Amino acid sequence: MLELVDLSHTYGSYRAIDRVNLKVAQGEVVCIVGPSGCGKSTLLRSIAGLIKPTGGTVLLDGKPVDGSPENLAVVFQDYSRSLYPWMSALANVGLPLRRRGLDRKRRDAAAMAALEQVGLAGAAAKFPWEMSGGMQQRVSIARALAYQPKLLLMDEPFGSVDAQTREELEDLTLRVCAHHGMTILLITHDVDESVYVGDRVVVLSKAPGTVVGDLTVQLPGPRDQIHTRELDAFVRLRAEVGRLVRGMTPHRNGVETR
Amino acid sequence: MPKVNGASLLRGLIGTAGLLVVLEAAGRLGAWDTERLPLVSTVLLRAGELLTDPEFLVSARSSLTTWALALLVTIAIAVPAGLLLGMVKPAEVAVRPLIEFLRPIPSVALIPLVILLYSETTHMRITVAVYAALWPVLINTIYGVRDVDPLAKETLRSFGFGPGSVAYRVVLPGAAPFIATGIRLAASVAIVLVVTSELIAGGIEGIGVYITIAQSGNRLDLMIGATILVGLFGILVNALLVAGENRLFRWHRARAGAAT
Amino acid sequence: MRRATSGVLRFWIVPVTLVLWELLTRMTESPFFPPPSRIVGQFYDMWLSGPVSQLLLTDSALDTFGPSLGRLLAGWTIAGVLGIALGVALGRIRGLAEYTDPVLQFLRALPPPLLVPIFFVLFKIGTPTQLAVIVFGVIWPVLVNTTDGVRAVDKGFLETARVFQFSRYDILRRVILPSAMPKIFAGLRLSLSLALILMVVSELVGSNSGIGYSLLYAQQSYDYAGVWAHIVLLGVLGLLFNALFLVAEGRVLSWHANARRNV
Does C70 reside within a domain? Predict the structure, then answer.
């Protein structure tokens, strides 16, 4: 459903990403991982239509993307700059639905349902500044869910919360997204997270970022923070991705690449 | 305020020229009765002529003197008072309510009273202007004194300097950028109050008086021309003071990221 | 409880000043400086000895305050609406601010009281002149602050709006304006205190109603206590407006105060 063809972007003389090619199928959860400064965010922002890439194309359902595509939602890393502090959680979640032509009552109902799915039914009337970072990021996820996008982009979504909250949010994301059958592109610098969350892990090199590895993750579901991370397959995959991220030669022992 | 560079300066000139041309054309094409409200070109011409008109210059000199004296008196009162209130915390706490009660009283409301008090019009105008211009200097000075690094004060005190010395050597220079900002604001306020008191209380000389006389002759061209000159004078004073601040207090702007 | 007492104690200087002032004026007996007790008495007689049904305000108070406050609030409201609208345009339409900056800087530098006689010649005496002066004089703080606030909207807020495809109206109404609101309110507050000043100026220079006119009348009848009472009245109005505005601001911008406290 999503296809990147030779996607490149330069800021002045600085090449952030260079000829990235990637195909994502409907319903896949793809994690993009890479060292800091590998143009991960540039990649995501190009797909979201927030910047115009200087080269190559983004195809969504076969059509080139120009501006912010419809049916696409983003969960940003910095929830404090993405949730509106002058609105309650419910209003924040419901706001994008105005574009969907729903009346107030149905917007509120849909927003409430999404908040329930992320376990925040009781906090609908709260304002962002009354919530912990983890709660705020749940609201961001609820907003994306209520919007019912076909493609969900997540930019380091759990980068600003503590480790325990991070694990909770990873599981929450896996659960609700499987439920909705959404296609997800998640960007992270965390090797563990990419293997744990993804069906596929795409590794970008240091700037200018290009695809240096594309691994299929085959782990038995449902995934579990303790047991999944103990599995031999998980450990091997993690090591492989780690080597790729550090720019070392991969071993390919029992790891399926594409 | 947009940053000033070549391109934005050019755009500003284009915008200004465009507006003047449109206004002039509208006036000439009969958008309004130019007997009553003169053309832009007439007004600008008149403003230029006023600069060499002896009658206007006498008035301008009088207003200018009043303004300068008012500003000096303001500084002489507000800076020491601000230093004292800023350095002696209990004094500030005590006087604060009085300041809060006195500050909202519009200075212009004092004009009818002050007219009765002074036989000399210049004194009356200065009093009115000082009452309004006092506050920005006072508040900024207090704020500036608070901002002075306590370590610098302690250091000097530990070397046995007395409070007067500390005030002169550390507090005053440290608070100077804030005081300068206060004085700049006060300069603008004082211009307004000087011409306003001339306008309301009358007298023999002063731009406000000149405008009143022009009004009795229905000379809108002279009234607007004089008003334009006052506005330009305000811009000039402000620009000079800003330039002075930038020059003197570069260290401060670099440190604090500039407070206005 | 302790905070309440310390709050009262904080104001000890006010009664002390009043008592000293009273003693001093009684001793000097200058006609220009009547004792505060006489000023308060005059204040009461003129404006506060009315029936309960009029909140104790006398007919004279209603006749004097009504036109003044009406003009003040009308002028301030018009200036607020215009200032916000123009400020949004200047802040959001690229290049517009650069083209208009010199003209706006110039207009802002004109002392508003000087416009009173000019508007008189144009509109003759009366409310239109006074409204024009107030609007012209107080629009600038709103305009400048709105422009600044609208420009400084966090990029993250706007990107979110773009990703979720908000309509242009929603971006303005639900993202840009609320985000700029704290600055806009700061401008509106400054404008309100300026509006009080310009109201007095316009009524002093030429009017046949309102507080400024009444003040001039007291002066011309050598009613010194009356003149002082007017000055006190204007100070009280200034304080009152400011306090009311702060209450309103606290309600509208509660998110802002709280969001800042929690960061």
Answer: no
A129 contacts chain C (CB < 8 A): yes
User: In this complex, which of C154, C157, C166 lies closest to A99 when CB atoms are compared?
Assistant: C166
CA atoms within 13 A on the CB side of C198: 32
Q: Using an 8 Å CB-CB cutoff, list chain C residues near B208.
A: 114
The whole-angstrom distance between C164's CA and the closest CA on chain B is 30
Nearest by CB to B195, which of C13, C17, C114?
Answer: C114
Q: What is the pLDDT of residues C216-229, one digit of tens each?
A: 999 889 888 999 99
Residue A212 contacts C where some CB pair is shorter than 8 Å: no
More confident residue, A90 or C12: A90
Contact C83, C142 (CB under 8 A): yes
B97 touches chain C (CB under 8 A): yes
Q: Looking at the predicted structure, is the pLDDT value of residue A238 above 50?
A: yes
A247, two tokens: 């720019």
Q: Which residue has the higher pLDDT, C231 or A255?
A: C231
| Options 3.40.50.300, 3.10.129.10, 1.10.10.10, 1.20.1070.10; CATH of A25-52+66-71+149-258 | 3.40.50.300
Quote the CA–CA distance of B11 and B68 in Å, as a whole number.
35
Domain encompassing residue C88: 78-256
Taking CB atoms and an 8 Å cut-off, how many pairs form between chains B and C? 158
Q: Is B193 left (phi over 0), alpha (psi -120 to 50) or beta?
A: alpha
B199/C114 CB distance under 8 A: yes
C165·A84 Cβ contact <8 A: no
Residue C5's H or E segment, with its range, is: helix C2-10
CB nearest C160 (choices: A82, A128, A130): A82
Mean pLDDT to the nearest integer, C120-142: 87
Q: Specify if C117 maps to a domain.
A: yes
Interchain contact C215–B (C-beta under 8 A) = yes
- Residue A84 has its nearest CB partner, among C167, C175, C261, at C175
Q: Do A49 and C162 touch (CB under 8 A)?
A: yes
The Cα B82–Cα B174 span in angstroms is: 13
Please report the pLDDT score of residue C47 as a whole number: 87
Chains A and B touch (3+ CB pairs under 8 A): no
Residue boundaries of the structural domains of chain A: 25-52+66-71+149-258, 83-148
Nearest to C150 by CA among C99, C86, C202, C210: C86
Cβ–Cβ contacts within 10 Å for residue A91, how many? 17
Q: A154, A186 in Cβ contact below 8 A? A: yes
From A39's Cα to the closest Cα of chain C, the distance in A is 18
Dihedral angle computed from the Cα positions of residues A99, A103, A106 and A108, in that order, rounded to the nearest 10 degrees: 80
Bridge partner list, A3: A23, A59
Size of interface A-C (CB pairs under 8 A): 74
Span B14-71, pLDDT tens digits: 999 999 999 989 888 888 888 778 888 888 999 898 898 998 999 999 999 999 999 9
Which amino acid type is present at position C114?
L
- C207: domain CATH number is 1.10.3720.10
Q: How many angstroms away from the CA of C250 is the closest CA of chain A?
A: 13
Which residue in chain C has the smallest CA separation from B117? C32
Place of tokens 């001039």: C216
CA distances from C31 to A148, C48, C219 (A): 79, 24, 12
Domains contained in chain C, number:
1
Beta bridge partners of A4: A22, A58
Cβ-proximal residues to A44 (8 Å cutoff; 6+ apart), any chain:
A32, A74, A153, A155, A185, A187
Closest CA to A51 of A39, A33, A61, A60: A39
**In B, which residues are within 8 Å of C17 by CB distance?**
98
Subunits touching B (CB < 8 Å, at least 3 pairs)?
C
